[in-house]
Write the structure tokens for this entry.
Amino acid sequence: MKLAFDIMGGDHAPSAIIDGALDFAKAYPHEEIILVGLPCVLEALTALPANVSPLACGSVMAMDEDVRNLMRKKDSSIWTATELVKTKEADAIISAGSTGAQMAAATLLLARIKGCERPAIASALPTLDGGKLFLDVGANADCTPSMLLSFAKMGAVYAEELLNFTNPRIVLLANGTEAHKGNKLIQDAYALIKDSGLNFSGNKEGRDILVGDYEVMVCDGMSGNIAIKSIEGAVSIIMGMLKQELTSSLKSKLGAALIRDNLYRIKKAFDQDEVGGAPLLGIKGISIVCHGSSKAKSIFSAAQLARKCFESDFVNKLESAL
Amino acid sequence: MKLAFDIMGGDHAPSAIIDGALDFAKAYPHEEIILVGLPCVLEALTALPANVSPLACGSVMAMDEDVRNLMRKKDSSIWTATELVKTKEADAIISAGSTGAQMAAATLLLARIKGCERPAIASALPTLDGGKLFLDVGANADCTPSMLLSFAKMGAVYAEELLNFTNPRIVLLANGTEAHKGNKLIQDAYALIKDSGLNFSGNKEGRDILVGDYEVMVCDGMSGNIAIKSIEGAVSIIMGMLKQELTSSLKSKLGAALIRDNLYRIKKAFDQDEVGGAPLLGIKGISIVCHGSSKAKSIFSAAQLARKCFESDFVNKLESAL
């Protein structure tokens, strides 16, 4: 397969994206890699492996740039890389840049699958109960009940095809587990999903997200983004406090040395680099959204995910299911 | 002052609520305590201290009961206890029961302060930067931009009067820090609060909640509830993993013994029992909402908070400010 990398997007771009892409090129010598970036960045790349080629773009959508600017930046790295998927010159596009721009480029260039009202970002979550799916985590800040139903349907197909769950349990993220909880959006979506024939298991709360006991958690992009970033923030702060405490005295340093392996296992359980990227579900093509803070390891994982989507023929399967 | 405790509400009711109330009665012998509960519970309470008196109610609003049932349960513990504040037989009411029922009873019996569109639950948050205020954390699942403006105003007064912050910085919880981020609600509230004369510092993300660098964080009750419970869940899971890892071998147990004090400090930093309760802002009276999972220590802290609200004459100050 051919993978296009937007090497200009992300907090650690271009170096982290290039490193991740080159690691992937080395690990998978039969796949073709296209690095899409500004000429000044590409010029510095000498002696690229045989399966890696550069492609120059003319501009970059900044991380915090208004997505409406995309229409005036059709030479940007994200537009150029997505266009390669449209013209079949690439099978997938990977970016850690502006999520809004990536979603807009995918929707405009690749078009939506019939039956998908709006694409959603489906993030794989590590839970006590194994890896689960959580969507939408940020593509759609304002949602309708029918959009949440469509996320539930797409999530179910993804969970079956790529995560190997049989008859996955779908839940809604709400402010309580009872059926009458939630805002109007969640209450109306509850009624829709309940009658949809999906394996619906009702509402879950924020504190249930990492526990598991579901396969697909559905919510609007605003709630999903707040939940996932709140969890990230809490994990990062506890880990920071642990580090500070465990290096604060000779005694604590000794203790820390004895539990090094234990702490490593906990850190690894929450390591988002292991997950890497989240696919944009609902578009006619593979577009993997990476965290803005992605480092090389994340980009490598995201490329593996793109490969898995491609090998499983996921887009066609989703189209048939919807 | 006189404090009314709804001893029937909460996961650990009635014993945890009674224990917390009695601890408070002992620590503050000049305050009067009223325990509102079912006769069968009150009968078992023998030899109450001189400053504690029982008051029988006829029913209980269950934790997951539809709040509309409250109108048919005007003999419930939450309604009876709130009524004591209305008739000036008590100065504050404390409950760990159904939040919806507590809010409905407060709104119907005590009425709203002029200028407050809807009461909000204002939770004190421990952040790296000290204790901050976060509202609404669950009273209003559906909000309008003007409600968020009113939360911002009430939060600013609370932060000044009870948390001693001068000119507190107000922020909105969104899915990104840029001004154009957020759903329609947050975008419209952004414009309103920006022009309100409050010390507005823009948008913050989920990962900023525990960092601080603000004094009052404003959001709708659905987002606030999801954020706070996501953080609680993440903290609880990491602490659980730590406990499991640190008791998994002799080596890790030895290490754990050396860092006992360090772990205790981290646990204490996130201990919600230290905070206890959150006031319902915007009603003509003091009603402290406690976490459903409250134990005696939380209830004791909540009673201290009620006392602080009373001593500072907060309700009148809020009324003047609005």
